[in-house]
């Protein structure tokens, strides 16, 4: 066997995305609210980029902006010309130059000094019409803070209070405790140990090094506090005892009794029973409800009503009263009141009819997006470069900030054009929806939009995901307008969204004492021309998060 080295060559194609294009794709994916926040962040970080104020708009500004945006407006590639490389060779070498190699921050001094053209940033004055202090969105943490205030009114030992604060901090938006109580106990005990060390340290005190130079080699008060035991401080400082899991269960029951009752429960069963426990007295129906939740909870979740009647030895009418009492309880005591994000949807598109109702008007909802321009200070910096020789760091910083500013201005304009292009085709394809409602939806897939608009399918996905359109029939996510096609008996195609809406309508209007099975729904759909199999009905029902017929049954 002979071993040796050899060289070979092969041809292949690879695709590499420019960093600017990757940044553009991220901008395309952002909804309008996140885009506004991103632009504000860019304005804060890049002094060469500024917002165009209403009183600053002029013909010069418009011509300058148009010159920036004229490059390749209808393609997805991003190319732009860097007109300034920061080198002093572009200017008159005979001009007197000031060497600035020693001070890399000279550019910042030029930037932040007083400018005769006016300050770079403009702020609204506090006039009488300024109502920024009113109509504030409720603080996201107010629910947790309210629970903490209630807890601190309870006569609990200090270590129990620390434990209770840890538990409340782990409660989610629905009012449930999803974390293991044993883990919360461990974290609380760590905090208790740190608190005890701090109390010991306060007793030990510090000795001034000036009184005894040898003390600089002594242990610190923190180290001494770790060395001493609790017995060494008996009677001198009050140390907190550590908490146990049994004590945590007791503290959790105290939290259950806060307002709203049942908050901090770990299961729905625990939540409902906690709400019954805070009532001063229980009626007969509430007593039945308590027995159902404690003795027949599994049968209750599966709606095995005959089994419940047999176990509790009650009639069906009595069972119905108990179920009504359970329905009066709140399965989500938090009710999502302190969700980390606002539930308000800001549409990215506003679609309306024209004045005579015969055509559609599509508007990109970019009223919150500020108009951008290159800072006029940039022209001043170019003039300064005639007499100052900037160092390499300054030139590199100036080049990067100029490129970023020019890219941001162009990318925002390109984003609007691309989104409007895609939305125009979607609205044209789903024209019947905007005049008739959900019954007018047509089958549509991402590839259809990509083929007509010339965009890549991944680009269409970025435009659609997380974006909303405001219509006369409500605000819908753009994904709502996309669905597969199902053939009808007439040979036409119908959107699967229409089928799902029909299934939901049939379930909403069914007799709850005899709910429709998937097979019965399939047969009823075939009667009106929709050839849908039973398994397809089950799949669509699960996508709509509707339970099976047995779990929809009511007495």
Assembly status: single chain
Average pLDDT number: 76
Structural class call reads alpha/beta
Number of continuous helical runs: 23
Q: For the report, how would you describe the main beta sheet?
A: 4 strands, mixed
Strand content: 5-15%
CA radius of gyration: 34 Å
Question: What general form does the structure show?
Answer: extended
Helix content: 40-55%
Uncertain runs: 58-108, 110-140, 206-210, 338-342
Count of DSSP strands: 10
Strand order of the largest sheet: 4-3-7-8
Distance between the termini: 85 Å
Structure description:
With 555 residues, the chain is α/β, with parallel strands linked by helices. The chain is built from 23 helices and ten strands. The strands form four sheets. It has a four-stranded mixed β-sheet with strand order 4-3-7-8, covered by helices on one side. Helix 1 (19-29) packs across helix 19 (457-464), helix 6 crosses helix 9 (245-256) and helix 10 packs antiparallel against helix 11 (284-295). The longest helix has 38 residues, at 392-429. The chain is extended, with a radius of gyration of 34 Å. The chain starts with 18 loop residues before the first helix and ends with a helix. The model is unreliable at 58-108, 110-140, 206-210 and 338-342 (pLDDT under 50).
């Amino acid at each position: 066997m002979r071993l040796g080295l050899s060289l070979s060559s092969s041809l292949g194609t690879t695709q590499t995305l420019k960093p600017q294009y990757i940044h553009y794709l991220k901008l395309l994916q952002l909804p309008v609210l996140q885009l506004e926040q991103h632009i504000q962040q860019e304005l804060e970080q890049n002094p060469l980029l500024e917002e165009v104020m209403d009183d600053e708009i002029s013909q010069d500004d418009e011509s300058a902006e148009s010159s920036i945006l004229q490059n390749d407006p209808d393609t997805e590639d991003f190319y732009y010309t860097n007109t300034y490389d920061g080198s002093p060779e572009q200017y008159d070498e005979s001009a007197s130059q000031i060497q600035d190699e020693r001070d890399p921050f000279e550019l910042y001094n030029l930037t932040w000094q007083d400018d005769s053209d006016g300050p770079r940033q403009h702020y609204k004055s506090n006039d009488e019409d300024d109502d920024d202090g009113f109509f504030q969105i409720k603080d996201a943490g107010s629910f947790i803070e309210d629970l903490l205030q209630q807890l601190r009114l309870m006569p609990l030992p200090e270590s129990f209070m620390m434990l209770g604060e840890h538990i409340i901090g782990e409660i989610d938006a629905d009012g449930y405790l999803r974390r293991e109580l044993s883990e919360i106990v461990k974290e609380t005990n760590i905090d208790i140990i740190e608190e005890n060390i701090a109390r010991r340290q306060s007793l030990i005190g510090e000795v001034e090094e000036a009184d005894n130079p040898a003390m600089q080699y002594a242990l610190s008060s923190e180290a001494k506090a770790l060395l001493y035991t609790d017995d060494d401080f008996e009677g001198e400082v009050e140390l907190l005892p550590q908490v146990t899991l049994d004590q945590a269960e007791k503290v959790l029951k105290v939290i259950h009794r806060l307002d709203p009752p049942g908050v901090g429960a770990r299961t729905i069963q625990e939540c409902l029973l906690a709400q019954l426990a805070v009532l001063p007295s229980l009626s007969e129906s509430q007593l039945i409800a308590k027995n159902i939740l404690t003795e027949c909870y599994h049968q209750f979740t599966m709606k095995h009503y005959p089994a419940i009647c047999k176990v509790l030895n009650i009639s069906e009418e009595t069972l119905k009263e108990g179920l009504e009492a359970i329905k009066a309880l709140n399965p989500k005591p938090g009710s999502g009141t302190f969700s980390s994000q606002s539930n308000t949807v800001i549409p990215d598109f506003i679609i309306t009819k024209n004045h005579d109702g015969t055509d559609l008007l599509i508007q990109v909802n970019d009223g919150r997006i500020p108009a951008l321009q290159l800072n006029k200070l940039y022209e001043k910096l170019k003039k300064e470069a005639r007499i100052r020789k900037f160092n390499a760091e300054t030139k590199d910083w100036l080049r990067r900030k100029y490129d970023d500013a020019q890219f941001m201005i162009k990318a925002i304009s390109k984003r609007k054009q691309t989104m409007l292009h895609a939305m125009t085709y979607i609205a044209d394809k789903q024209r019947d929806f905007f005049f008739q409602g959900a019954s007018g939806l047509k089958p549509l897939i991402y590839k259809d939009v990509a083929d007509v608009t010339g965009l890549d399918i991944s680009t269409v996905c970025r435009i659609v995901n997380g974006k909303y359109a405001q219509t006369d029939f409500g605000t819908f996510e753009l994904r709502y307008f996309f669905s597969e096609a199902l053939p009808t008996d007439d040979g036409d195609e119908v959107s699967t969204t229409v089928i799902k809406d029909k299934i939901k309508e049939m379930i909403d209007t069914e007799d709850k004492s005899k709910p429709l099975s998937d097979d019965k729904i399939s047969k009823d759909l075939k009667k009106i021309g929709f050839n849908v199999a039973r398994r397809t009905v089950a799949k669509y029902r699960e996508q709509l998060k509707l339970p099976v017929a047995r779990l929809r049954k009511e007495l």
